[in-house]
Structures are given as structure tokens and as C-alpha cells.
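Look at one such:
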Amino acid sequence: MTGIFGWLGALPEPAAADAVLADMGSAGGGGVVCTADVPDFRGGVSGVASAGCHADDDCVLLVSDTRAGSAADLAAQWRRDGERWLQALHGPFALALLDRRRGRLLLAVDRAGARGLYLLRRPGCIGFASRLSALGALPGPKLRVSDQALFEYLYFHMIPSPGSIYTGVTKLLPAQVIRFDGVDAAAPVQTRFYWRMPYADGADRSGQAGFDDRKAEFRALLPQVVGDAAAGDGRVGCFLSGGTDSSTVAGTWRRLRGEAVPTYSMGFDAEGFDEMAYARIAAQHFGTRPREYYVTAPDVVDAVPRVAAWCDEPFGNASIVPAYLCARFARGDGIDVMLAGDGGDEIFGGNERYANQWLFEQWGRVPAALRRALWGTVRLPGLGGLPPVRKARSYIDQAEVPLPDRFETYNFLHRTPLADIFEPDFLARVDTGAPLANLREVYGRAASRSAINRMMHLDLKITLADNDLRKVNQACQLAGMDVRYPLLDDRMLAFAARVPPTMHLKRTQLRWFFKRALADFLPADIIAKRKHGFGLPVGLWMREYAPLRELAEDSISTLGRRGIVRADYVDWIRTQHAGGHASYYGVMLWILVMLEQWLASH
């Protein structure tokens, strides 16, 4: 997986810059580092030099992924079409283009955010990099950890764009382009989205004929996007969790190849976590060549410091560990590229909370007078002890909270007063309303009036680009592996957006269109299963496996001296985890452990 690094204006020390460029080349799996030198710009890209970097009298262009096109071809398209050329780019990419004649710098990332880009602006210098650590080579003061970012990490379990762990460093959002008309701090800056998910609104009234037409288009598109993702040099493997998405990608690829293809699955020796049975069903159904690895608690102890040190920012999604172990397992087999099924839930209506939110949204359809009467009835004295009344109260209380705020009802930071979680001085330095403001902005920006489409739009950014893609990208990078996402092909995004929201979600039936369109392709057991993925029983293992428990204890003890989280809150979490709620409270314990592991290694 390739990346870019460059700067405009004041140059870093040559030795520091060369070290970063060389490191990025090795991180990309041994690619060749290409550098372009012009009077006011220097940049680097790992990958094939003739494709990743182009310089002439008009421009300097760096592009992270040659699947978007060679740098020379992209530069020619830019000269012909100007900034409209961004709308014609396809595939995963991060790019930087310096318009030398106008003194203008453009930065952009792909539509799904499959490739990331960090940005640092200082007086007289603009720096950008696919890897956050590269920005540390730029001149100026040392990068400083942001209190706001720490708060948002503990809220989201990752740091969503546009923020980053460091003060003054931001991340580009999916399909975003930023234009700088000069290096000076007062120079104009334009930020916009060059593409938006073109959602269809309203109910589907086309009947069976409309479904049949869409099914035929979808089934014809699948082999195209999977085949294109698997094309190129190197041996290709496929993640296979046994869910609908990874099974669809693996099965399509197997049929395209006409022979058994390698699929990689993770298992866990813990009740309620192991999904290997479904992966085996898919492998047998399609005739793949299955490779299986059972993750153990010692694996986790070994992987945690490695993963924390590699991640650009604190990252608390525990499934990054099995994702890394799976990619490393495949790399040991000589695999160069992994196909991943990420994205299907966010474009075809598959996240389980969509069904719950559909139920809550029905409350708004009840006439206002009746809502008031019901609200008063369930709060009559003496009725609170009745189970049906308690359930009705809970339903109404949640339904009265508007989307997207309602998503966060069960967030750890909403279930306990913030003053009981954070140290007072730390809490005084952060904007506690910023996380919800971020969610509201993305939810409201969707080009749709449908709550279903808006929920999917929010998850495309928060759940996918900020979380799942970052997880899989970093896990594969650490393993020396490239990864590709067929279901996030631009053609698939456009197709999914045209499917009416009521076909994605039929009342509480998730992925209605996707599952019925593939009913004669996927095994029935996989069509019927609930989403799980590479879940990790870390809460149980932190309680039962002594070395992991000791790692956790050491980590949270050190974190407690940093003035972020109150010691009594940490003690409470520890007590609850040690009791009968290891899996539930193990989530927050893991979040704290990974924060300290990241801070210690950086």
C-alpha cells in the first residue's frame, strides 16, 4: 500500500526528509521512493516512480495509488479539465498537485476515504503525508498531543476526521479537496467536496420488475469490481469472516478464477465469539482453499505493543489485532494483496442499529396529541414498577432524542457524568459538545431527506472511513500487505445509492435488496446470520489470562498519572470488569489500555 509525503515552503533538514521518504518506501512493501525537486516544493511517493510522481513546467503531482492512473496521465487530464478532473478520478487515492504557474496546491482523497491524508499548516509551510509520523520531519515546534483529540478518542474509540491526535494537524474527509493559493498564513484556502453520494429518496414503487432489473445490474457489476480489485501483479488472498460481504467477495473471485483461491479466516476459542463455522460454510460452498488461524491470548499480548506503535493515532477497535494477525498469516503464505468485504453494511443498509432506529422513528409518525397522552400515561404514579410500562418509558425517552444523537444513547461517556470520568482540569480544556456536532454535520450533509440514507451516510464516514478502513489499512500495512475493497468501487457506490432506501431496509429487515439479490448465490445460513466479523474476546482474556491482565493493569496505572481520566473511574471500570461483566466493561478497559500503549510508544 503506497503513500505520499510532501511539503510546500520551508524545507525540513534533508537527512530527516530522506529518512521519512525511505521509511515510506519500505512501509509500502519495498516500493521505489520517487522524489521531485523544484524551487519551492519537494515530495515523495512510494511505488513505481514513473506512475506515482510527475513533474514538469506546469505542475508537480504525487499520487498514492497507481490504480487511479499514472501520475503523468493524471497530470495531462488536469491540464485539460482543471479541477473538474477530480470528479472523473476513480479508485482509492490520496494526491497532491502543485500548480506551479499559479502557486496553488491541491490536496484530495478518494470518495470512500480508502486512502487517508494528514495536513499540517504552519507559517511559511504546508505539509501533507499519508503517514502522520512523516509530518514530524517538518521544521517548527514538536507536534503536541491534543486534549480535544484525547477526549474524542475516548468518546469514539478512534479520532474522527477532520481532527487528529496532534494540535494543528487535520485529516481530509472522504471526497474532500483543499486548495491553497499560497503558503502564507493569510493566503486563501478553499475546502469543498468534489463528490457526494447520489442517494435516491422515497419508497420503491417499481414492483418485482424493478427489483429484477436492479438485481441483474448488481449481479453483473459484482464480477467487474472484484475482478478489477484483484487485477495486477502479486498473489491475491481474501479475508473470509463468514459474513455476507466477505463471502460475496470471496465467492465472486472464486468463480472468476475458475479454481480454488486462498481465503483467510480467524477463530477464537471463546463462546459467543468464534465464527469459524460460517467461514467454513462459505469456503465449502464456493470451493475456496481455506486457511484458518485461531487467535490466542498470547497472540494479543505480543501484538498490542506492535499495533499501538504502528498506528498513526490511538486506535481502540480491538478487531485490529485479529486483522493484523490474519494479514500476517497470509503474508507468511506469500500473499501480496488481500481483498476485503468492508463497506457493504454502509451502502446496502446492514448495520443492526438501523433496524432499531426504524422502530424509534415510528414514534414521530404518531399524532402529536396521542404522543402527549401516551407520554403522560406511562409516567403516572405507581405504574413505574410494571415491566411493560418501563419498556414503554425507555422507548419513548429514546424516541424523543433526534437522530443522530440517539445513536449515542449507550455511549460510555453518556451513561456516566463526565465529571465522574475526567479530571477537572482536563475537562475544562475540551469542548464536550464537539463529538455530537461532528455527527450532526455529517448526518445533515447527506444529499437525502431519508433517515435511512442519512444513517448510511453517517456510517460511511464515521464507521467506515474513520474506523473500519483505518483498522484494515493499518493492520495490513503493519503486515507488509496491500488491501483492496471491491464493494467500495465507485461504480458500486453509485449503484447502491440509486437503490431506494426502502429496498435497503424493509421495516426492520436489514439488507433486504442485497440478500435477496444474492439468495441463489450465498449459502442460506450466511444469508440468515447476524453480523459479527473478527470479534475479539479481549474482555474475557484480560480477566482470565495473567500476562494480558498484567499488561492491562500496568497500562491503566500509568495512564492514571497523566491527568486525563479520574483514578476512581478507572477503579470502578476495573471492578466491574473483574465481576460478571467482563465483555461489556472490557471494551472501555481496552480503550484505556490502547490509549496508554500509544502514548507510551509515541
